[in-house]
């Protein structure tokens, strides 16, 4: 066998290892959209739903429920967009959307995320909403780091950054919304753009 | 001992090499998953699996998912070690200085 054949062997091995264990059809575009939805949501919340100076946000007020609804719509829209973009890209890559790699990716992403979500709801029920933004950022970051082993790209660095921002946010109470915009809005757009440029180069 | 001694004859085939590549990075994989990734026919895949199983490089586990029989494969310690040696040999062959 010549060197060329050995080289072909190695390339094939790498390719199979990646294809069998990592989900490769995530696109930076979903990140950009998620970031934009987050910023639009935060702007709406800031101007219409947040308490004016001197007022308090109470748990059973209409505004609080609207805030939750807004948050849910941002999340839902992001997931929906990601799903559509991913399906399209998977078709182009001749990859199945739903196989062992997607399942693993989702499970590992959802464990820290759902844990965080439940924890935040428990805290909210006992009137502790001061750290909500910080907790959301931290648990989301942990979810990304955990899921990064099962996909390509450098999702883990996005995760590390989200965790750092979440921790800084915990030290500076009162600026939750701004850190939230930074973490869920700006960072998504920046990271998504970097990924997207890399994809189009290939 | 030369590098060539570490080149494993059993891995000198695209499909057997492929099966091992998949099994060293995944805890296990079932027959259909291997077939799908390697794009081979049932009979072809089965014969290569048998060869690896006989060498005790892979472990075969039969079970039932509901009523359907399901066979899953995983790499043994020996299989992983041999695969690693094989890869290292391939790499040193590629990187060896040319005269």
Number of helices of chain B: 4
Q: Estimate percent helicity of chain B.
A: 40-55%
Structural class of chain A: mainly alpha
Query: How can the largest sheet of chain A be summarized?
Result: none
Q: What is the radius of gyration of chain B computed over CA atoms, rounded to a whole number of angstroms?
A: 15 Å
Largest interface: A-B, 15 and 19 residues
Query: What structural class do you assign from the helix and strand content of chain B?
Result: alpha+beta
**What is the first-to-last residue Cα distance of chain A?**
31 Å
Main beta sheet of chain B = 3 strands, antiparallel
Total domain units of chain A: 1
Shape annotation of chain A: elongated
Query: Helix tally of chain A?
Result: 7
Question: Residue-averaged pLDDT of chain A, rounded?
Answer: 88
Order of helices and strands of chain B: HEHHEEH
Secondary structure layout plus pairing:
The complex is a heterodimer of chains A (202) and B (99).
Chain A (H helix, E strand, L loop, with lengths): L2 H19 L6 H22 L12 H31 L7 H26 L6 H16 L7 H17 L4 H26 L1
Chain B lengths: L13 H12 L3 E2 H8 L3 H13 L3 E8 L2 E8 L1 H19 L4
Antiparallel strand pairs in B: 1-3, 2-3
């Amino acid at each position: 066998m010549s060197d060329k054949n050995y080289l072909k062997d190695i390339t094939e091995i790498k390719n199979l290892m990646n294809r069998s264990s990592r989900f490769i059809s995530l696109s930076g575009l979903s990140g950009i959209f998620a970031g934009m939805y987050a910023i639009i949501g935060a702007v709406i919340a800031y101007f219409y739903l947040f308490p004016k100076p001197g007022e308090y946000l109470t748990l059973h007020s209409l505004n609080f429920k609207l805030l939750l609804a807004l948050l849910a719509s941002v999340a839902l829209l992001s997931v929906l967009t990601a799903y559509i973009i991913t399906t399209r890209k998977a078709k182009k890559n001749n990859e199945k959307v739903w196989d062992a790699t997607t399942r693993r990716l989702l499970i590992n992403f959802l464990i820290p995320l759902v844990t965080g979500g439940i924890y935040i709801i428990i805290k909210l029920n006992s009137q502790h909403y001061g750290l909500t933004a910080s907790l959301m950022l931290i648990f989301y970051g942990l979810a990304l780091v955990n899921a990064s082993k099962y996909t390509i790209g450098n999702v883990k660095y996005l995760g590390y950054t989200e965790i750092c921002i979440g921790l800084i946010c915990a030290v500076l109470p009162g600026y939750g919304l701004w850190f939230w915009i930074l973490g869920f809005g700006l960072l998504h757009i920046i990271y998504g753009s970097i990924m997207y440029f890399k994809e189009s180069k290939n | 001992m030369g590098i060539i001694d570490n080149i494993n004859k059993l891995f000198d085939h695209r499909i057997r090499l492929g099966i091992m590549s998949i099994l060293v990075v995944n805890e296990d994989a079932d027959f259909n998953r291997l077939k799908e990734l390697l794009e081979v026919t049932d009979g072809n895949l089965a014969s290569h699996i048998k060869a690896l199983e006989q060498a005790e490089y892979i472990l075969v586990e039969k079970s039932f998912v509901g009523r359907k029989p399901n066979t899953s494969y995983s790499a043994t310690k020996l299989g992983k070690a041999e695969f690693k040696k094989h890869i290292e040999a391939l790499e040193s062959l590629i990187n060896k200085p040319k005269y």
